[in-house]
Amino acid sequence: MQRLIGLYKFERTKTAYQDLAGLLDDTLPQLPDNTVLVPIPTTSAHIRERGYAHTLLIARRLGSRRNLPVKSILVRNTNTMQRHATAAARGLQAKKAFRVVEKVDENANYLIIDDVVTTGATIHYAAKALRDEGAKQIWVAVLARQTLD
Predict the structure, then answer these.
(1) Can you give the pLDDT at residue 94?
(2) Is residue 87 pLDDT above 60, yes or no?
């Protein structure tokens, strides 16, 4: 899994999103029809480097497989990168990183899609941004967990 995600994110192996979305699809339980998939937004620097927004591709494929909408309602306020940052730095960066750019439906279930969780700061503050805008049900689906050590 580490190799597949690494190839996808850092070696421009774009087609890996299909397998990664398939793994999520195989693992997730049945989701309510009012579920909206929300990818963690990729930094613009990484989009320029890779040529694609990696979590958006995964979310779109999963949405297609599950017949669920994908909405990029979270955007980045900053272009900071969590990779190689300490836990404290990750928390500070993530705290300022996200804002919601579309009206939130308080009756929808929002499923945040991310590839890797390390400290949890990114998903915590992404969920907080949604909650602050009125989302009541927020879930998270990640492909892998990686420790800082």
Answers:
(1) 64
(2) no
